[in-house]
């Protein structure tokens, strides 16, 4: 029988707990972000989602939510970029939603181009 120090037995669990805490600390509270958007603070929601994307840049759901927040903030080109990435990396249901939102963003870009190009 080998003796291991008590802290060595706890270390793997502590490391796992630390990883879980770091992972959950980067996941934004989506209902709170939706509330921010509804209250006219879409840029704040977009910034928080961008910070979460730094930790998980290929998360299709975060990309979709970032695109929706960017659209609400009036940053349609940035919305298109996020929604396009969400469409290519997301599941089927998310791809459909991303395409729909991309159509909305493209429409708004077209309206602004039409208004500026008399």
Can you describe this structure?
- With 118 residues, this protein is an all-alpha fold.
- The N and C termini lie far apart (85 Å).
- Helix content is 81%, strand content 0%.
- Helix 2 packs antiparallel against helix 3 (42-55), helix 3 (42-55) runs antiparallel to helix 4 and helix 5 packs antiparallel against helix 6.
- The radius of gyration is 20 Å and the shape is globular.
- Mean pLDDT is 80; it is low at 3-24.
- It contains six helices and no strands.
What are the main properties of this structure?
6 helices; 81% helix; mainly alpha; 118 residues; globular
Output the helix-strand order: HHHHHH
Secondary structure: number of strands? 0
Low-confidence stretches: 3-24
Overall average residue pLDDT: 80
What's the story with the biggest beta sheet?
A: none
Brief digest:
By secondary structure, the chain is mainly α.
Which helices and strands occur, and which strands form pairs?
Blueprint: H1 6-26, H2 30-38, H3 42-55, H4 60-72, H5 76-89, H6 92-116
Helix pairs in contact: 2-3, 3-4, 4-5, 4-6, 5-6
């Amino acid at each position: 029988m080998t003796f291991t120090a008590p802290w060595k037995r706890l270390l793997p669990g502590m490391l796992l707990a630390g990883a879980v805490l770091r992972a959950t600390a980067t996941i934004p509270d989506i209902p709170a972000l939706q509330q921010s958007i509804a209250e006219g603070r879409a840029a704040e929601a977009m910034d928080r989602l961008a910070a979460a994307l730094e930790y998980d840049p290929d998360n299709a759901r975060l990309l979709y939510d970032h695109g929706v927040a960017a659209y609400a903030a009036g940053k349609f080109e940035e919305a298109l970029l996020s929604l396009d990435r969400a469409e290519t990396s997301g599941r089927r249901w998310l791809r459909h939603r991303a395409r729909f939102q991309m159509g909305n963003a493209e429409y708004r870009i077209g309206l602004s181009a039409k208004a500026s190009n008399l």
